[in-house]
Structure formats: C-alpha cells, structure tokens
Design a protein that fits this description.
The protein is of the alpha/beta class. It is built from 13 helices and 22 strands.
C-alpha cells in the first residue's frame, strides 16, 4: 500500500543527458506527467558538462589561437606583439559556455512542466524509485527510462589519480598546459584533446593498441587524419600495448610493448587515459526491478529499447550501440513515442559519426572494409578538398570526400569525409541515404559555389563513373 503523499508519475527518466532530457521533453509533449531524476548538481549529463560541449569550446579556442599564430600573416593580418595563450581565460570561457547551455536545459524543463528531482535514483521494484539526496523521497511510476549514460573507461592496472594520470573530465579542467601529454588511446577523445593541447604548445604522444587510429572509421579516413595530425606535430605510436603507467612526482611514465614485443617507455608530465567509455549503472539497483545487465555492464534491451522489465526502457550509452549524444536523443524520442502508442523507427546505419578535430572527420553508413567483408559489389568515388576554390580561399585544403555506392543500383551505401566543416556536411549524406538516393541523384543536385559542399557533388560524380569535373 503506497503512502498517501507519494508522488506519482507516468514516466520517470533517470539521467538528464541528451538522451534523458530529450526523452523527458517528448514524453511531456505527448501529455505524460514526467519526472527527471538527476544525481549531479546540474542537468545535461556528461555531454553538456564534461564532454561534447566543453571539449568543442576548447577545440574552437585553441583553433583560433593556432590560426592567429600560423595563418594571420598569410591572410594579411598583422598583429603587433607576441600572441600568447591566456589559458585561465580559455578555461573560464569554456565554463561559461557550459553554464549557459545547462541553463538552457533548466529552461526547457520548466517550459514543458517537467518535474526535476535531485538525487540518486534507485529502483525498489519495477514501479517504485527511491531518491536519495537533496529531494529524498520515493515515487511511484508507470514507466521508467534509464538514461544514466557512461563514464570514462580505464585499464585494470592504471591508477587514475586524476591529477597527473587523468581522464577526459580532468583534461577539460587543467590549471596549466602540459609540457608533454601522453595519450593512451587513438580514438575520438584522445585525438580531440590531444589536438587541443598540441595547438597550445604541448608535445603530444598518442599510444594506440590497434594498427591505425580510430579503427572504426573507413581506413582511408584513419590514414588521412593521422597524416594531417602528424603534420601538426602529434606523434603516433601504433600497435603498442600499454603494460604499465607509473607516476613519480610530476612525471608519468607509460610502458608499452611495440608490435615486435619490445618494451618502449614514454615520459610526460600528464597522461590522458582515453581508452573508451563504459556504461554507468552504479546505484541503480536494476536487479530489484527485474532489469538485466549483460557482461559488459549494458542494460539489455529489445528493438523497442524495452528492458527485461516490461515497463522499463533504457537508452543512450547505457545500452548497445555507438556512444553518441545524437543517437541517445533519437532513442529518447523513440521510447516516448512508443509509450504514446506511435510506431517510431531508428535506422542505426544512418546515425553519423564525427570527430571534431580540424580538419573534422565525419562518416555515415558502411565503410569500404565492411562492404568488402560482406561481398557487396560497390564503387567508390573520391574528391580532394584541395581542388575546391573555397578550400583554397580559407586555407583548409586537407582532406577529401569519399562516396561508396552499390555497383549495380548506384544506391549510396556510405559517405566518409575529412575536411573543413565535415561535421555539418555529413547531414547532406544522411538525408540522401534516408531517402535511398543514388550517387547520380547527388551528382545532379546544384551545389552553391564556392562551398565545401561541392566536394560532395564531385565525389558523387566520381562514384558514377569518373565524372568529377575539377580534378
């Protein structure tokens, strides 16, 4: 028997990251009485507070500095005196960007009349959640959406002291620019933050276990990105297995075996551990609600993102699939609409992947390696950014656009690009593939001149039979 004053809701969303807050908004739009439970002081989850938003802020600030020191003179801009980094101001601006963004989520919660309860949400059973913390209470819910996200991963033998041996969270709040930043992991996080500190003057060494950086990308993208970042001064050590990380005073020494099995050592004043992220379910007490976790710590869900408890769903980093904020958002909307009796759908093949280095890297659909592995007949069309007038005008000539099509139907199967504004350009490819467009369709669309997007048209022309016009 429930207490007389127990709060009741149609939907409880545990976690307020992009997946959680978007799910809550859509539930509220569809007429459900909704509550968001958040254990941290601010809404927005990892993405807004210690992930996507602050890292892009530092990437942009460091990019401005690099442009000022390297390219202003060529552009005819003479800056008197020495250009210097005010790192404290750079971090302060980053904090302000985060604060403004988080306040925007607060506004959206109020606008949509969503209750926000501060504290750790734990299941007592499938329909009751106990909140411990500021808004301590137990609530009764018809449905729950687990959106608890992920946390930085590590290696078993590494002691993350969060001072010199750090994760991405600490790397966004350093009080000084490292002299030598050793990065373990050549994925998105390691490359983005490695580029930030390389621009600001740090020596950066990236140690990667695989034989190429960002191995989930099309191999052509991995090769091009490493070439560009090498040119920028980042050092790469591929096929290296880290075996030890030790700190003595302000020096961190990383030991790794190369592909021949020989031990190599790398000494720096900071070591960024960027070996991926893992699902976060601490304190959730999922078992009490009948929710099953797999051996990777992920919440097990079906195609509707329903857990093994019929009235509980899970989305985002805590379930299978790519750990991307926009993937979590799509899943949040799907669950909300499913609860409302609609029939939503997500095509996971068409969720783009982006690395926000400069040049940016973006991809959607199948890689050439995947097509070859599946014995799918295909064609490839590629066009270099350096052949664009807009690229030469902006001095952003690195990179290319690569389009993969079915050899028999000409349907676009994958688009892979590296270059200026690739993160924005990839949406054209997503749109085209959503409507199952052919390369011929893209090739016959008028693209404004001069733009970076012309590379997409030219790559499509190349894919239809070596018809690119400007190479």
């Amino acid at each position: 028997m429930k207490p007389k004053n127990m709060n009741q809701f149609d939907v409880a969303v545990i976690g307020s990251g992009p997946g959680g807050y978007v799910a809550a908004i859509r539930c509220a739009q569809l007429g459900m009485k909704t509550v968001v439970i958040e254990k941290e002081p601010t809404l927005g989850g990892t993405c807004l507070n210690v992930g996507c938003i602050p890292s892009k802020s530092l990437l942009d600030s460091s990019h401005h500095y690099e442009t000022a020191t390297k390219d202003f003179k060529t552009h005819g801009i003479d800056v008197s005196g020495k250009i210097e980094v005010n790192f404290a101001q750079m971090i302060a601006r980053k904090r302000e960007v985060v604060s403004t963004t988080v306040k925007g989520i607060d506004f959206l919660m109020d606008k949509n009349k969503i209750t926000v309860l501060r504290g750790l949400g734990s299941f007592e059973d499938a329909t009751h959640i106990k909140i411990t913390g500021k808004d301590a209470q137990t609530i009764e819910v018809k449905h729950s959406i687990i959106a608890t996200g992920s946390t930085p991963g590590s290696l078993p033998f590494i002691n993350l002291d969060k001072e010199r041996i750090i994760t991405s969270t600490e790397a966004l709040e350093l009080s000084e620019i490292p002299k030598h930043l050793v990065v373990i992991g050549g994925g998105v996080i390691g490359l983005e933050l490695g580029q930030v500190y390389r621009r600001l003057g740090a020596e950066v060494s990236v140690i990667e276990y695989a034989d190429r950086i960002s191995p989930v990308l099309d191999a052509a993208l991995s090769k091009e990105l490493m070439k560009v970042m090498k040119k920028q001064g980042v050092k790469f050590h591929l096929s290296h297995q880290v075996t030890a990380v030790e700190r003595k005073g302000n020096t961190v020494t990383v030991t790794a075996n190369d592909k021949k099995g020989a031990a190599q050592t790398f000494a720096g004043d900071y070591c960024l551990v960027a070996v991926g992220r893992k699902p976060y379910t601490n304190g959730l007490n999922a078992e009490a609600a009948g929710v099953t976790l797999n051996d990777r710590g992920q919440v097990v869900v079906n195609d509707q993102l329903q857990t093994t408890a019929q009235n509980i769903y899970a989305i985002g980093d805590v379930v299978r699939g790519a750990m991307l904020a926009h993937k979590a958002e799509e899943e949040g909307v799907l669950v909300a609409e499913y609860l409302a009796g609609q029939k939503p759908h997500i095509d996971y093949n068409l969720i783009p992947n982006v690395i926000y280095t400069w040049p940016e890297v973006a991809a959607v659909g199948k890689t050439e390696e995947e097509l070859k592995g599946a014995n799918i007949p295909h064609k490839a069309g590629q066009f270099p950014m350096r052949a664009l007038g807009r690229s030469r005008a902006s001095m952003d000539t690195d990179g290319f656009v690569k389009i993969l099509t079915h050899a028999e139907t000409d349907e676009i199967l994958g688009v892979h690009m590296i270059g200026a504004r690739a993160a924005d350009l990839i949406t054209e490819a997503v749109t085209a593939m959503e409507f199952r467009a052919s390369a011929e369709d893209l090739a016959r669309m008028s693209h404004a001149h001069p733009t970076y997007a012309e590379a997409v048209k030219e790559a499509a022309l190349a894919a239809t039979g070596n018809r690119a016009l400007h190479v």
